[in-house]
Specification:
Blueprint lengths: L27 H15 L11 H8 L3 H13 L3 E2 L7 E2 L22 E2 L12 H14 L14 H15 L8 E4 L1 H15 L4 E6 L6 H5 L3 E8 L2 E2 L11 E4 L13 H13 L3 E5 L23 E6 L11 E4 L5 H11 L5 H13 L1 H27 L5 E2 L6 E5 L6 H13 L2 E2 L1 E2 H4 L8 E5 L5 H28 L1
Parallel strand pairs: 3-14, 5-6, 5-8, 8-9, 9-10
Antiparallel strand pairs: 1-2, 4-11, 6-7, 10-11, 12-13, 13-16, 15-16
Helix pairs in contact: 1-3, 2-3, 3-12, 3-14, 4-10, 5-10, 6-9, 11-14, 12-14
The structure holds pyridoxal-5'-phosphate (PLP).
């Protein structure tokens, strides 16, 4: 049923050419938001045009006032409208500056000026000279015989260097023969899951929220079971009686919340693995960057026969290298080898040896020291700016890595989080929220603010943008309450 006939918009009319259908699968709220957005994008509602009051538009459309309050509020939070208490909202964008198609979920095409996406390193700091030097050294040294097909586990030179490095820096118990060089964690995860399945695993427990590309897990034939996390990492107590026979964890810096798996949970998890002959994949993606305390050793050091340890050069150097590694229990070396031969010859040998050269020459440690200082400064600046501008919002998970977690006000729900993210993106600030990493996680909504790729002056601007967007949101909530 149509609640109103389209009206022609004139300068003297406060009615809008909008009709809503009660027979539609979409809610009235969504239809109204889309319709308003369509009018703004088409230029029918130009910059500076004042919209009808919520009461007038609700009466025109024959809907309740909160529906209009919501739609206005969302468009305000997304940066299309400016709303002041007691005044009708005003359009504040030009049609050409807005995406020209679709509804609220279409990709936004505005350039990213403030890149706060979580777990992103500053690739502009890639040590190009050190890398060139390392490649030159490798090319001088590498015998022609090593330029053929090699050991599918990877370069023996890199596997030796990694065994020493991982033992020294992460407390990983690693023999070069049990190390597999992979094309990043992405390939390592696929391999590990395939081998878990070969070894009889059928149900993989995963953190909720988590780094959530599950294609490899699904393809391996593993069923997923979500286990919630809190500030101390995965709630491993929930594994007992869960039916899971393998687990994927980020113990050193839970992704994305940021907690470190507590000592008692580590003990519990190790017991759970040993008692049931179960297997774990430890994703140790960013542990080199720890700021407030000494690095927490890898979990693998506590149970090397049950845990496949995974590391990556994507955070310390650059994702484009596509270099990662697995350290596997000795009982899995053969199945891993067999699995690997089915699908991969591994990353380029010259790159592998260049990474080994970087590690052995000390250039990698130097780079890490430099980047740790840089990231620590950016993190500290972000934390103090947030504390000054948004003192009521709690920051979590800032002890390590390349991002921190900002708890949003309690009033923000999943839709609110999405609207806030869209509004930030419209102002050039890209970040992620809880919704990206979990469809089910309970508790407060969160933003995950990366600081790897942003200068201190950029951070000042970001915090200003964030404060404005959240203030818009707060205003929306207040007006919703008063209109009820
Ligand atoms: C939780 C987590 N693990 C691992 C990785 C690294 O993946 P890859 O080595 O495939 O680049 C990332 C990258 O964003 C990540 O966020």
């Amino acid at each position: 049923m149509t609640t109103s006939r389209p009206n022609k918009l004139t300068s003297s009319s406060t009615e809008l050419p909008i009709s809503l259908s009660r027979g539609s699968a979409d809610s009235l709220r969504l239809q109204l938001r889309r319709a308003l957005l369509g009018l703004i994008r088409s230029g029918a509602l130009r910059r500076g045009v004042r919209l009808p009051s919520t009461r007038a538009l609700a009466a025109q459309l024959g809907v309740s006032r909160p529906i209009v309050v919501d739609a206005y509020g969302q468009l305000t939070a997304e940066g299309y409208l400016e709303s002041r208490r007691g005044a009708r909202p005003v359009v504040i964008v030009d049609p050409g500056s807005t995406p020209d198609v679709g509804g609220p979920d279409e990709p936004v095409t505005d350039p990213i000026r403030l890149d706060h996406r979580p777990a992103m390193p500053d690739v502009g700091m890639f040590p190009r000279n050190d890398w060139m030097r390392a490649v030159r050294t490798v090319l001088h040294r590498l015998p022609a015989g090593d330029l053929g097909y090699g050991d599918p586990r990877g370069s023996p030179v890199l596997r030796r260097a990694l065994a020493d490095y991982l033992g020294r820096v992460r407390g990983v118990i690693a023999d070069p023969s049990s190390i597999f060089v992979t094309s990043g964690f992405a390939e390592g995860r696929a391999l590990a899951c395939a081998v878990f399945h070969v070894r009889g695993a059928r149900c993989l427990a995963v953190e909720d929220p988590s780094y959530s590309d599950w294609t490899a897990v699904d393809r391996a034939g593993l069923r997923r079971l979500s286990i919630p996390v809190d500030g101390n990492g995965m709630k491993v107590e929930d594994l007992g009686g869960s039916g899971a026979d393998a687990v994927l964890v980020t113990p050193s810096h839970q992704f994305p919340i940021g907690g470190v798996l507590s000592a008692d949970r580590r003990q519990y998890l190790v017991r759970w693995l040993r008692d049931g002959g179960r297997l774990a994949l430890e994703d140790d993606y960013d542990a080199e960057f720890r700021y407030d305390q000494a690095p927490v050793g890898a979990l693998q050091g506590l149970a090397p026969n049950s845990i496949v340890y995974a590391g990556t050069a994507s955070k310390t150097l650059a994702p484009a290298l596509r270099l990662g590694w697995l350290v596997v229990p000795s009982s899995l070396v053969e199945p891993m080898n067999a699995e690997l031969r089915r699908w991969s010859e591994g990353p380029p040998r010259i790159d592998q040896d260049a990474l080994a050269e970087l590690i052995v020459s000390g250039a990698f440690d130097r780079h890490l020291r430099k980047m740790r200082r840089l990231y620590r400064d950016r993190r500290n600046h972000l934390m103090s700016s947030l504390r000054a501008a948004l003192p009521a919002l709690e920051v979590e998970g800032a002890a390590a890595g390349l991002h921190l977690t900002l708890r949003l006000p309690d009033a923000v729900d999943a839709d609110g989080e999405a609207a806030i993210l869209a509004a930030l993106l419209r102002r050039g600030l890209a970040t992620d929220g809880l919704g990206r990493y979990s469809a089910t996680a309970a508790g407060p909504r969160r933003l995950f603010l990366g600081y790897g790729r942003i200068s201190e002056s950029g951070i000042d601007l970001s915090v200003r943008v964030l404060s404005e967007v959240l203030a818009d949101w707060q205003r929306l909530c207040q007006s919703k309450c008063t209109s009820r």
